[in-house]
Amino acid sequence: MSNNQLHAFFVGRAIAEALYEQLEQALTNAVSEFGKFDAEQRERLREFTLQAIERANRSEETTMQGRTTAPTGQGTRYADATLGLGSPSGDLQATIDELRAEIAQMRSELQRYRSRSL
């Protein structure tokens, strides 16, 4: 082989190795960035989930406080039944019947209030 051909071979090989190293570095950076992005998205999802659960808990707490202080005197019984405290067996049908009765009572009071407003 002539000296020029040998030199061209080594130049070509050096270029291929340099390109391979740059490709490897670019791929490593891309995978690293994707990993960072994935971690950030998971953290955002976790924070969003925690915020949603916190809001739900606050809303539930506010709602339950409102029901336990109902002016009809039925709120405590409703809260106890909802929590399974009203009956030791936690009879679902009895709880549903109590809720229906309470709804009917609230409707009649609402109609009475509306008729007084007119």
Keywords:
rod-shaped; 2 domains; 118 residues; 3 helices; 0% strand; PG18-like; coiled coil; Thylakoid lumen protein
Describe the protein's architecture and organization.
It is built from 3 helices and no strands. It is rod-shaped, with a radius of gyration of 35 Å. The N and C termini lie far apart (110 Å). The model is unreliable at 70-79 (pLDDT under 50). Helices cover 85% and strands 0% of the residues. Helix 1 crosses helix 2 (75-82). It has 118 residues and is an all-alpha fold. The longest helix is centred in the first third of the chain and has 66 residues, at 3-68. It has 2 domains: 1-69; 73-118.
